Amino acid sequence: MFDGTVRHARDAFEGLAVMEPLVAVARGADPESVGLPPLKKRIHKRSLLTVTEPDAMPARSDVVADNPVPVPPFWGTRIVKGIALAEYSTFLDERATFMGKWGLKPSRGGDGKSYQHLVDTEGRPRLRYWLDRILAEGILDASVAYGYFPAPSEGNDLVVLHHGDDPSGVLGVAGLPAPDGGSGGTVDSERLRFVFPRQRRDRHLCLADFVRPRESGQTDVVALQLVTAGANVDTVTAKLFAENKYRDYMELNGLTMQLTEALAEYWHSRVREELGLGAEDPVELAGMFKLEYRGTLFSLGYPACPEMEDRHTVVELLRPKRMGVVLSEELQLHPEQSTDAFVFHHPEGKYFSV
């Protein structure tokens, strides 16, 4: 055990505000005079969950299994490069950028600067500056690897079948309609599978429930996507850091992280449109952030799909090396500003915790 106090900073900018008084204390200043924020009372919430024992777990939740299955525009994968900044920057979550990444929060000191004041005087002017600079210097190289895969479910498993763009060259022969609605090639042999956890409470949901079960006799479709902002941003931010331009470094790094998320949301909207779900999208961007659409995006590492080892399987399916994205031994995508996800078209497919 160590004596002392643990302080938590929600982001790098708040960390800077905490570090300055701590450094002053380390140099002999009176802790009461350096402006350290007061410690918050620790609160422990009482758990009211009823957990189902493993031997009593259902094989499937009450999610409906008779919803219409959309026809994808193609089976397999495609690579799209050189996506214009103007196309996906409109999906940028400004609040997450300004508050979460740039630390624009009203001062605890009560100096009268509201969040909206900070947005108008600091946030949006800096955002315009960085977007202009990103465009002028070609800092981002937005690319996407995505695809549609035939897939039934078996219990907690999502089974991906062989398909027309399968690099193994193995094709099935029965049961799957052609993307154009014709009578062409079909696939019925297993290629690989994902195993997802099931809730031990509530509705006992599992991601596999959002896919038609194999016994239904109808093959479902699951979309995967992997987006990247490119490798150049790492070079630019490393240069800013080496030049001790820490605020510029944190601003650009935080913004490009959010622009990568914006790229993911932009392409997510394209996938929904290609699956014929676009008419169910909200009119306002705020509705997008509130998930008021059909066809939810589930990223690896989230509660419903926590197994990061599955990234090997995602990379095998999408082959993002064709656009310069590789997977490290630590299961991290490189370039760093890259993210991957599943898209499930099921109308009940919403976020849940396992």
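The record above closes out task 2.4. Task 2.5 opens with a second protein, given below.
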Amino acid sequence: MSTGVGMSSCCLTGKVQEGTPKGHVETIAGLQTYVAEPKDGSKWKTVIFLVDIFGWEFKNTRLLADQYAEKGFTAYIPDVHEGDSLDIEFLQTVEPQKTERDARSLTEKATATAKTGATLGPWLLKHRESVARPLIESFIKQVRMIPGTNKVGVVGFCWGGRYAVLAGDKDFSGAEGMGVDAVYTCHPSLVAIPGDFEGLAVPASFALGDSDSLLGNKEVDQIKELMAKKKSEGIDTEVRVYEDQVHGFALRGDWNSEKDKKAMDESCKQGIDFFNKHLA
């Protein structure tokens, strides 16, 4: 029986990083898309970013895509929410950093929880699988047809983390050779365990936090077991658990915290190393 792992106010924590994204915007498969390219413009190694609830314009995501470009990848961040991502102000107003959240009174916490539920519930319904999945499938297919594109990987975060897992399913694209060649998933939410993982047919890497309120120790162990089984079947998989890291750490950690910044840096390196191995 599948275990549905949901989404809570924890999804709204994090910090906006400093820096100016260097990429540009194009329209691909009908979606506004941020594009970060390596200096030589090569599309031989391509990575598609599937975003969290804060969407394709979230600066942290674009800066991370720029890091991939610096390492020789062409990175795409499509607007799979079609202009309806959640406002970035939720990071500070609805759910601030964990230390500030823990200092709130019970009344303040109750108010924040109510606001979160009122916002997330309708949004998740609007962007349910029957809506989001066709957009993602279409985008992947279109990217594969861009001249110069060789292998394609997908990296997903939180809400997009589930779709990164599904993108590696043998039946995801509906046509042989039109799916992805490898997936990297960071702290996914809304996943069904084991259901969403059973069809995984491409190399897969996972970055999980050991303090993630959406993926407890039980769920992490289940994912480890499922990936160990995939490895025994000849599919390259890896699962790394980051100490003291909460949901969203790979994208929204606090760079003023040495431990958080190290986790962000190492999770970035984890994805780049994995894709270098499988997209070359």
